[in-house]
Design a protein that fits this description.
about 260 residues; alpha/beta; Rossmann fold; seven-stranded mixed sheet; four-stranded antiparallel sheet; about 40% strand
Length: about 260
């Protein structure tokens, strides 16, 4: 099976990634629950800007910025009347917003505490008063082992496809991992469509760095929604001393005064 008409391999990989990895509507509802009065969300390390588009879709009052360093990737963000795509380095971008979101583990690109602190400081400066930086991380005992997970999913473009998450290397002594995402559908193979070499930060490390960068408070959440109302609005509560799973995904909300 050839590529769909008008689709490049990169465009198809980003499309399949949004289906398999990015739960953008749920993330947008989580952001709204964490900061219910927010109007503008800036998605850093935005890729194809799935979260920014989902945020803009939540309300006619919402505005979104998508900050992406790679112009070839940024061009796949698509068009939305309340979305602005900014080709820039998130480490230096100072465009203002009520919420800054760095999700799908981009803090892992920052391999040193100095780089992590620098990003937190830039993000805090860019937030409006009472603004919130939202980021995620995974960890736990199971995060330090090689891993291969496959799921069967469907796309409106290519139909059934296989998504494979491979953690090829993991080094607890350095905190560094190497992960690959593969896609396959009938007649099309996209091996190592995305490759990540991340530093996995612990939650105490993230909290300490955010506070040192000047944030007033850091809340930790272990799920995107504790409850949903009839209109699909999410209700969330931060965890305190509750145990996390052996392998966990957690979300931090760093609050500016």
């Amino acid at each position: 099976m050839p590529l769909p008409t008008g689709w490049s391999r990169r465009a198809l990989a980003l499309h399949l990634y949004e289906i398999a990895v990015t739960n953008a509507p749920q993330l947008a509802r989580f952001a709204q629950a964490v900061a219910p009065n927010a109007r503008t969300l800036r998605e850093d390390f935005a890729g194809s800007a799935a979260l920014a588009r989902a945020w803009a879709d939540l309300s006619p009052k919402h505005r979104a910025l998508a900050v992406e360093l790679d112009p070839k990737t940024a061009c796949y963000a698509g068009e939305h009347p309340r979305l602005e795509v900014v080709v820039a380095d998130a480490m230096r971008c100072t465009r203002k917003a009520n919420i800054i979101a760095a999700t799908n583990f981009p803090l892992g690109y920052l391999h040193t505490r100095g780089a992590l602190l620098a990003y937190f400081r830039v993000a805090r400066t860019s937030l409006r008063p009472q603004g919130v930086l939202i980021a995620d991380m995974y960890g736990g005992d199971g995060a330090w082992s090689p891993l291969l997970q496959r799921r069967k999913l469907r796309s409106p473009v290519v139909g059934a496809f296989t998504y494979t998450w491979e953690q090829r290397e993991a080094h607890a002594s350095t905190g560094l991992v190497e992960n690959h995402i593969h896609f396959a559908c009938k007649g099309i193979e996209l091996p190592s469509a995305f490759v990540y070499r991340w530093r996995l930060w612990g939650l105490p490390e993230l909290r300490d760095a955010a506070l040192e960068a000047g944030f007033a408070r850091v809340d930790v959440y272990d799920r995107l929604a504790d409850a949903l109302d009839d209109e699909g609005n999410a209700y969330v509560r931060p965890i305190n001393d509750e145990p996390l799973d052996a392998t966990w995904v957690a979300y931090i909300a760093c609050r500016k005064r």
